[in-house]
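Quick one, tokens below. Sequence please?
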């Protein structure tokens, strides 16, 4: 009977060691979501206080779990048109804000709108939000030069 208990304990130790090396230690450097979340922080010092804020992770066009790709216009572009078309792609049915203008992406995530430009440099801020609370933002600079 004691041998059976010792054998069970030994098997549990071996299984626990395997789980430790596969999931906790992760020697293969695999990305294991939900097991070891990583939070990147930035520091800002002001008046003897340190504020920590999460740094958004951007990879493959995703930021905070939502895609945002701007098709038109290109950043730092120059135009002689006073009105330009803003188009892009994000998650289906996401809320889209272009500066203060609210619109929604269609079922494929596509959005299109137009913006009136002032003479000189214009900043265009595109912000998208989905139903899960994910958010992404892009800022473009477009320079309008009339003839």
């Amino acid at each position: 009977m004691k041998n059976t208990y010792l054998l069970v304990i030994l098997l549990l130790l071996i299984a626990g060691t395997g789980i430790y090396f596969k999931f906790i230690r992760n020697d293969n450097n695999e990305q294991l979501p939900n097991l070891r979340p990583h939070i990147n922080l930035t520091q800002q010092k002001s008046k003897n206080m340190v504020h920590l804020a999460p740094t958004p992770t951007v990879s493959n066009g995703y930021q905070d779990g939502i895609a945002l790709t701007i098709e038109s216009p290109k950043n730092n572009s120059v135009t002689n048109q006073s009105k330009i078309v803003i188009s892009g792609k994000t998650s289906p049915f996401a809320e889209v804000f272009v500066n203060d203008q609210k619109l929604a992406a269609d079922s494929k995530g596509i959005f299109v709108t137009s913006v009136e430009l002032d003479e000189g440099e214009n900043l265009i801020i595109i912000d998208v939000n989905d139903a899960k609370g994910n958010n992404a933002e892009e800022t473009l600079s477009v320079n309008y030069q009339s003839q």
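The CA atoms of residues 79 and 144 lie 5 Å apart. DSSP finds one helix and twelve strands in the chain.
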